[in-house]
Design a protein that fits this description.
Number of strands: 12
Strand content: 5-15%
CATH architecture of the largest domain: Alpha-Beta Barrel
Radius of gyration: 21 Å
Shape: globular
Strand order of the largest sheet: 4-11-10-9-8-7-6-5
Distance between the termini: 51 Å
Largest sheet: 8 strands, parallel
CATH topology of the largest domain: TIM Barrel
CATH class of the largest domain: Alpha Beta
Helix content: 40-55%
């Protein structure tokens, strides 16, 4: 073997790609006993100098006649998910509120902006790290809370698979209140990567306090209060088939494992789903106020993000009432069909937040979208539907591949545009793009 070929294969091994490309097909749905395959150890990530080195491994494997069996672009990922997921799961994840205009606006908004490249600066070494929730994170990318992500993996244990991919890639995972496994079990799989817990605040304060306490005790480093889902949005695609999986007891393990929920039931929740559902309906709808945020602040030492902020006045009020982080999002267009993109509202929210970090999601489909959100002031950018789709055809392995691909493209786009770190990108900002 020539020296140059041997060097390339060494780079490929360091990038941790060989395990992906060499394995056979993904597990089929329903095979819950089969463990996740091909999860890359976290120390393999730090063996490379930049996230973009991932692609060297892909090309190195091709020299051996091995190409990736997982897609790299969002359109292919979504198509593969639509072919792999049970129809009712795919419909739920992809569904939008109303006629979907807000979801479409979220996606379309990114095409209105662009980054102006700078030449002759060529940063060989990049640092994409940020500070958030009192932690130093390897990149500004995180996995947003997705309530039914537990159903998106081949074994219906997507929360655990996402946690394993988080450990493998150093991309933080946000566990939803709606999960297939209790929060204490999921965090065991995140390794050294910080993870966040998203809270749907029930109107039962004993249960709410228990959720918060469990999250803090089990090691989550940040608490996200979702403010825009105090009741359920109107989603025609789900209404057509009566598709609300929680009503069938799916992704309810944080409730079913909590004594402050089960003490109201005559039988264990899994033995009497109707009774469990009846009690859940009593506690889910909760008319939130800023007093609720102040109460949460008294319950925990964890930093708190308020998720769903779109108006600058709400950003200021959230900070005044105890928020440590602002989370600008419209729930991916799944709640209020307001018709305005979250990206359009981001700059004003960032300005109102001042020195308070601002997380962002809604409409992010590729790394260029994330770069634009960062350039407009976001501290960290969340991926939603794309990572749920990436789980569908290979669990932790395919999601790890997706996240490493995302980070590689993010890193290389920034590098080729001349930015060595996120601060340099923010200083340059972005420009309005004119399309003929």
């Amino acid at each position: 073997m020539s020296a140059s070929r041997r060097d390339l294969l060494t780079i490929g091994a360091a990038a941790g790609v060989g395990a992906f490309a060499k394995r056979a097909g993904a597990a089929t749905f329903g095979n819950a006993d089969e463990p996740a395959q091909g999860v890359v150890k976290k120390d393999e990530i730090t063996a490379t100098s930049n996230f973009g080195d991932f692609q060297n491994g892909v090309y190195a494997e091709a020299l051996q006649g091995v190409t990736s069996r997982y897609p790299f672009d969002f359109a292919s990922i979504e198509r593969k998910a639509s072919e792999t997921l049970p129809e009712w799961v795919y419909r739920y994840v992809s569904a939008a509120a109303g006629d979907g205009r807000t979801q479409r606006a979220n996606v379309d908004a990114f095409s209105r902006y662009g980054i102006v490249p700078r030449m002759m600066v060529s940063p060989l070494k990049r640092d994409l790290s940020i500070d958030l929730f009192g932690k130093h994170l390897a990149s500004p990318i995180f996995m947003s809370p997705v309530g039914l992500v537990g159903l998106c993996a081949p074994d219906f244990q997507g929360d655990v698979a996402a946690a394993q991919a988080s450990a493998a890639t150093a991309v933080p995972f946000t566990l939803s209140t709606f999960s297939q496994s209790p929060m204490e079990d999921v965090i065991k799989h995140t390794g050294e990567t910080p993870s966040f817990f998203q809270l749907y605040l029930p109107n039962d304060r004993e249960l709410a306090a228990s959720f918060i306490d469990r999250a803090e005790r089990s090691g989550y480093c940040g608490l996200m209060l979702t403010a825009d889902t105090w009741t359920l949005g109107y989603r025609p695609a789900d209404l057509e088939t009566g598709n609300f999986p929680q009503f069938r007891g799916l992704c309810m393990e944080n409730y079913y494992s909590d004594k402050n929920f089960t003490k109201h039931l005559a039988k264990p929740a899994h033995e009497d789903q109707a009774a469990a559902l009846q009690h859940y309906l009593k506690i889910f709808v909760n008319s939130l106020s800023w007093e609720d945020l102040r109460w949460i602040r008294t319950q925990t030492k964890l930093p708190i993000a308020v998720k769903g902020i779109q108006h600058p006045d709400d950003a200021r009020l959230a900070i005044e009432n105890g928020a440590d982080v602002i989370y600008c999002t419209n729930h991916g267009g799944r709640q209020a069909n307001s018709g305005i993109s979250a990206l359009q509202l981001l700059p004003a929210v960032v300005k109102a937040a001042g020195s308070t970090p601002v997380m962002f999601d809604s409409g992010v489909r590729n790394p260029t979208d994330a770069i634009i959100a960062l350039a407009l002031g976001a501290t960290a950018v969340g991926i939603g539907r794309p990572y749920a789709y990436a789980l569908s055809y290979g669990g932790a392995e395919s999601l790890t591949h997706y996240l490493r691909s995302f980070l590689a493209e993010l890193d290389l786009c920034l590098a080729i545009c001349g930015f060595k770190d996120i601060a340099a990108l923010k200083q340059a900002g972005c420009e309005l793009a004119v399309h003929s």
